[in-house]
Amino acid sequence: EEVFLHVESVHETGSSGLVVIGQADSGDAPALNVSGNMLVGLFGDGQVVQEGSWTTVTADTLVLAEKGGDGSYMLNEGSLITQTTYVGGWAETGGNATFENTGGTHFADQLIIGRGSSGTDQYILSGTGSVYTSALTIGTLEDNATSSSGTFQQNGGTLEVYGDMILGALAGAT
What we know:
mainly beta, seven-stranded parallel beta sheet, six-stranded parallel beta sheet, 13 strands
């Protein structure tokens, strides 16, 4: 089951949506639980901003930028917990995907950056942000894609990989 986060219809090319979860320094503890796929930037542009130190977002799969859309996730505070996070969509026609973690905690069984999309896929870790993952893959080819690129940029924060770290998986991936 897929869950679409949007303000306007994401099924129309060119639409855009913004979701803000939590509020900095509010003391509230909002939670968003998605039992399926969370797609941000499907056909149109999507952005999620997560704030508030007690804010928690969970999803089976998080996908940024799919089918020509641009997707971004700004994890400023709180926790994001996923089985798999794809920074870059499934389709070769994906748009640009950006994940910025400046102060939150991101737990992902698998973190995959650059998955055969034609856009720019990047994960930027800075400030007090942290990433904990069992597997980190940067630049992989899936779904008959002919090229892929992904970038992980660490300007601060903590990255811990408890299993495999793969850079440039398969021919044509960087």
